[in-house]
Amino acid sequence: MSNFDDIAKLITENWELLAASTVIFGGIIGAVAKGTPGVLIKQWQNRQQQQRIRQIPAGDFPFDVISPRSTDLLKQIMGGDDKNPLADYKIPYQERQRDRSIRQELEQAFTEKNWVLILGKSGLGKTREAAHLADVMNQEGWTVLKLADQPGEWLDVPKVFPSEISKDDKLLFFLDDLNRWAYAGNPNEIHPKAGEDLARPLCEPVQERLPRLLQYFENQCKSVRVIATARDEQEPDKLGQMSPWDKLQWEKYRAFWDDFTPYELVEPDENALVQLLTDCVAAAGLRGMPQEYEQIVRRNDGTFRNITANLDSAFNRGLIVNDQEFSPRLDATWRLRYNRAVQLYPLAAYGYDAVELLQTLDLYVTEPMLVETTKLFLSGQGLGMWRRGWQLRRALRYLIETEQIQQPKDGQIQGKKTSPVAIHQYVPAILRLLHQMERRYPTDLLAFEFLDCGHALFRLNLIEDALTSFDHALQLEPSSYPEAWSYRGLLLHQLKRAQEALFSFDQAVRLKPDDPSAWYDRGNVLFDLECYEEASDSFKEVVRLDPDYQENWNNWGASLGNLGHHGEALEILEKNVEIDPDGLESLFNLGCALDGTEQYEKALSIFNKIVTINPDHHLACQQQCSILLKLERYEDALDILEQIVKANPNDPEAWSNRGAVLGRLERYEDALYSYSQVEQITPGHPRTSLNQGFTLFQLERHGEAIISFDIALRINPHDYETWYYRGVALGNLKRHEEAITSYGHSLELNWDNPDAFYNQACCYALVGNAKLAVESLQRAIQLAPDECYEMAIVDIDFDTIRSTPQFQALMIPND
Questions:
Q1: Do 270-344 and 626-811 fold alike per CATH?
Q2: What is the pTM of this model?
Q3: Distance CA 640, CA 610 (A)
Q4: Which of 101, 115, 551, 616 could form an SS bridge with 260, CB 3.0 to 4.6 Å?
C-alpha cells in the first residue's frame, strides 16, 4: 500500500479529528511524508519502552524495585523527558547552604533511627535530596523500593514475601510525598474487604498499615532503612481543603511519626540559587542576563522548583532569562503558564481537564488518549467540527511539546482555573473510549488499561464502574489475568452478589491454583453463603500454600466453629493469637470460640482485653455483655450497656439488650423505656414488641401486653413464643377460648412445648371441656412427666374435671 493510501485510510477511519491527530511527533501526515506510516499504532504498541510498565501486581507489593548500582535511578524516581535539558533528573545538584552538606546531615540522621522523614514546603527539593541520597546508597549496594505513584494494591504486610527481592538484600524504602496517602478520608484508606468482616474496621489509615509493613521487612531482611518526604505547610492549597500538615495527622498518630528522625529541609541560600540559574542556563543553551540573577533570586519564593519552572518556560518560549519575565511564586508560575496556554489556545483548558481525568483513573497520558479524552470535554461547545479539530490540533501540540503535559510536574495541573473534574460523570465515556481505541489501534496492552482503570475506580469507591472496567479487561483476556478475576470477585462480594463472586474466585483459583489470596477470598464468599464445609476446605488450602497467612487462620477457625468443630476451631484460633497477641481480630475470634465452648470466664477476659486496647470496639462490648448475661452478672452487663447506648444512642441492639437486662433485674418500667427507644430507632424491630409484651405481662398489664403481642405477630406470624405468651396473657384475663386458640397456633409451630400443652389443658378445663383438657394434659405429661404430673395434682384449674373418669384414669397410674 502506498503512503497516500495510508493517508486515505486514516481519513476514512478517523475523519472527525484528522487535524487533531497530526499532533503526534509533528503530525501523522508529516510522519507519512517521511516514510513512517502508522506512527499512532507504533507509539501505542511501544508503551513498554515508557519509564514504568504498569501491570497487575503479582500480590500486594506496590513498590517499584530499583536494583543495586542502577545507572538511571534518578530518572526512575524523578522522571523527565530525555529530550529536555531541564528534565528533573538532569538538573545539577546544588548544596543549599555554603557551609553545610545536606547529604551528610541526612546520612547522620540514619545513625539516630533507620527511618528519616524530610519535611518542607512544596517545591523546596525534598524529593531531589532524598533521590540523590538514595542514588548514593544504591551505588553502595542498596536495593531501592519506591512506593508506586498510584499503588493499585493494598499497602500492608504482604501475604507472601515478594519474589522481586531477597531477604539478604539491603532495602531502602523510598516513600515520596506521604501527604498523598496519609490524610483521613482518602480512598486508599478503605480496605478492599471492608464490609466482609464485621470485626474489620471500615478504614485503615496508612499510619496504621505502613508500620506493620516496615516492621515485617525489618524482621525478615538483613537491613532496612526508610527515606520519606512530606510537605509541612500549615495553610491549605485551596480554600476548604486540609492543609498538607493536617493531612499527616501528626498528633493522632504520634507513635508512628516518632519512629522517624524528622529532618527540616532548609531553603537554599542566594548563592545556591544563583549557581542553579547559571548552571541551568548553560545546560539548556539559554540566553541569560547574569547581572539580574541576584535580583531574580531575591524575588524567588525560596524554592528550587520555581527557578526551574521559570527556566523551563523561558526555554519553551525562547526567552531571555531576566527579572522582567520571572514569576516569583511557584503556584503563580503554574497559573501563569496555564493562562498563557489558554490565551494562545482556548481549547488547552480542556486538555488540562483531560490530563486530570486520565491521571485520576490511573491511565497513561499517551497522545491518542489525550486527543480522544479531550474530545469528551468539547461536547456541546458549539464549535464546528473542522474548526474544533484544527484548534484542538494546535492546542494539544502546544501542551505536549511546550508544557510537557503528558508528564506534568507537581502542582502543574492544579494551576488551572477550572474546578476539579467530576470524575464519575465521564467514567462511562472513558470506558467506551478505551473500546474505540482497541478497534482503531489493536494491541494486547488494552487489557492493562481496563485493569488500571478498574483499580483507580475501586480506590475512588465507584464500585459499579470498577466492575465494568474489570469485565471489559476479562472480555479481552479471559485467561491471562487471574488477579483480575479476584478483583472482580471482591467487587461482586462487596455488592452482595455472592454467587457471582464465587464464580469469579473459582476462575481465579483455576487459572492460578497457587494463589493463597484467591483461595482466601473464595473461602470468605462461601462463609457468607453459609457453606461452611466448602469454606473450611478453601481456608485449609490457604494454609497449605501459605501457613503465615494470618487472616486465614481467623476465618478457618470461624468456619470450623460454625460446623460445630469447636475443639479444632479453638486450637487454630489459640495458635493465631500466639502469632498476633494484640491483634483485635485474632482476639475477637478467639473470644467467640471460647464463648461457643462455654468457657465464659476465659472468653470474658479476652473481650475485656480487646476493650482495654480499643474502648470503641463495639462488637467486643456486645460480647462482654452477652457473656455477663450467661454468667447472670446482670449489674455488670448493665454497666457496659449504659456505656454503649451513651456512646451510640442510635444502636437498637444495645437498647434491646439493655431492656432484657433490666427485665432480669425486675426493673420493668426502665425496661419498657429501652424498648420504646428501639421502636423509635427501628420501627418494626422483630423482637421489640414481643419484649414489650413480656415486660407488660410481668407488670400484670395483660391487656397492653396482648396489644404488643398482636403487633409482634403482624411482623412475624410464625413465632411460636409470641403465640404462647399471648395465650398466657389471655388466660390471665380469663379469656380462655381465645387463649386456647393462641396456644393452638403456638403448638402448630412447635409441637414439643409442654408448657403450651399444659396451659391449654387448664383453659379447656376452665371452660368445661374435659375430653380436650385431658388430651392436652396427657401430651404435656409425656413431654415433661415429673413436672407436669406434680402440678396437675394440686392445680385448682382442674378442679372442675378432677372427678371425671378421663382425668382419674390419667392421674392414677396403672400397677
A1: no
A2: 0.54
A3: 14
A4: 115
Mean per-residue pLDDT of the chain: 82
Element (H, E) at 334: helix 330-344
Percent of the chain exceeding pLDDT 90 equals 35
User: Structural domain boundaries of the chain?
Assistant: 1-37+359-377+386-408, 63-264, 270-344, 626-811
* DSSP, res 797: G
Full 3-state SS string of 239-307:
CCCCCHHHHHCCCCCHHHHCCCEEEECCCCCHHHHHHHHHHHHHHHCCEECHHHHHHHHHHCCCCHHHH
Please spell the DSSP secondary structure of 33-46, one letter per residue: HTT---HHHHHHHG
- pLDDT of amino acid 31: 29
State the fold for domain 270-344.
Helicase, Ruva Protein; domain 3 (1.10.8)
Q: Does domain 626-811 have CATH number 3.30.450.20?
A: no
Specify the amino acid at residue 458. F
Cα(645)–Cα(622) distance, rounded to whole angstroms?
A: 11
Of the given ranges (23-27, 71-75, 267-271, 275-279), which has the lowest mean pLDDT?
A: 23-27
* pLDDT 10s digits, 738-753: 999 999 999 999 999 9
Is the Cβ–Cβ distance between 493 and 525 less than 8 Å? Answer: yes
Residue 225 three-state SS: strand
CATH annotation of 63-264: 3.40.50
DSSP secondary structure letters along 349-402: HHHHHHHHHHHHTT----HHHHHHHHHHTTTTS---HHHHHHHHHHHHHHHHHT
Exposure string for 709-736, b = 16+ CB within 10 A, e = fewer:
bebbbebeeebbbbbbbbbbbbbeeebb
Query: H-helix or E-strand containing 810?
Result: helix 805-811
What's the start-to-end Cα distance of the chain, in Å? 114
- β-strands 223-231, 115-120 pairing: parallel
Which pLDDT belongs to residue 54?
30
